[in-house]
Write a structure and sequence with these properties.
Order of helices and strands: HHHHHHHH
Strand content: under 5%
Largest sheet: none
Number of strands: 0
Radius of gyration: 30 Å
Distance between the termini: 54 Å
Helix content: 40-55%
Number of domains: 2
Structural class: mainly alpha
Shape: elongated
Length: 189
């Protein structure tokens, strides 16, 4: 059997027929006929995804996709600027800034450290106690997710003190921490 090798689709979500329509539109020499053909292709592309019509800039997205499929060789009057799209597509994205400081106790994560800082700012002692109780239960759950051995409540209290650099001093009498089995039990369906 002799199989023809198909060209790779630039945007496969639109399918091969839309790509063929775009390729055909690029071969048209009359600008008004080409513009009419492109507008028909845009309408057809919109019909493929009717549930997205309510999203903002839906038509703009279709024109951008059409420009990509045409390899930015459209020579028509477009309602959206297509010339800057090719330049933007090749730009590298901005680098994401990460915090350089290390996490003190990795299995709790950075969010737990930030919650400790929030607890330090709470001035009402009863409110701070309730917050620390919730945080201690969360920490115990996190500990059990990442460590196979059980953890006692004293370890959680010591970790809170360590994460707060000794600024928070609580005992197991101050807060009630749930038992490990409460976190380990599988939820019944």
């Amino acid at each position: 059997m002799n199989y023809q090798k198909r060209t790779e689709l630039i945007l496969p979500e639109y399918g091969r027929n839309i790509q063929k329509m775009v390729d055909h539109a690029l071969t048209l020499t009359d600008k008004t006929e080409r513009t009419r053909c492109i507008n028909t292709i845009i309408d057809t592309m919109g019909n493929l995804f009717p549930y997205l019509r309510d999203t903002p800039d839906f038509r703009h997205k279709l024109w951008d996709h059409l420009a990509i499929m045409a390899n930015y060789q459209l020579d028509i009057e477009s309602p959206y600027p297509l010339t800057t799209l090719a330049e933007k597509r090749n730009e590298k994205p901005n680098q994401i800034k990460y915090k350089n400081s290390g996490i003190k106790i990795r299995h709790y994560g950075r969010n737990t450290e930030e919650m400790i800082n929030v607890a330090l700012k709470i001035e009402n002692k009863e409110e701070q106690r309730k917050f620390l109780q919730t945080l201690a239960n969360y920490m115990k759950k996190s500990y059990l997710q990442w460590n196979k051995e059980l953890v006692n409540d004293e370890q959680i209290i010591n970790d809170i003190e360590k994460l707060s650099d000794g600024k928070i001093n609580i005992t197991t009498q101050d807060i009630k921490i749930r038992h490990s089995r409460d976190f380990l039990q599988k939820k019944k369906k």
